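U., I forgot to send this yesterday:
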Amino acid sequence: KLNNLELNYSLKRKFSYLSASLYYKRTNNIIGEHTSLDENNILTEKMDNITFVNQIGCLVYFQTSIFKSIQFDAYVECLYNYFEVKDYNGFELKANISIEFPLPWDMYLSSDITADGTTRYYNGYEYQSPLIDEITIGKSFLKDRAELNISLINFFTPDKWNEKIWDQNYSVISNGISNS
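Result:
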């Protein structure tokens, strides 16, 4: 069950749009993996209705046209997670920047850059490195009713992560690099 309360302000100008929000979210009855270690060192994992999370945060979204032809979007969100087990509480920061350039013959070139930072869960956290998500070249047809594009996804930068899951009896730490 999810409960939300959000206060939002939006402003639109000729070539720009700004939206800012403050919010509170509570998610009850989170179903997740419950892991336990018994006295014989046997690790048991099962799915269960285990906890809740409260989130308090703010987000800002900005969109504008630069020189009336270059599109720029930016999204930034900062939030605090409050879990039943206080060891897992903490801040998260997420950001996404997109830019799109016009090309000749009704074509365009766009790129997305993402930085998610630390994502917190009911039993640990994960950190993911900033990366260039996507580079796309595309063409519009039929008066912008159809589009054909080619995208390179995670092509230039590997996706790196570090993850830590723990409770009172054990901890699991993993990290890696994924090349798409």
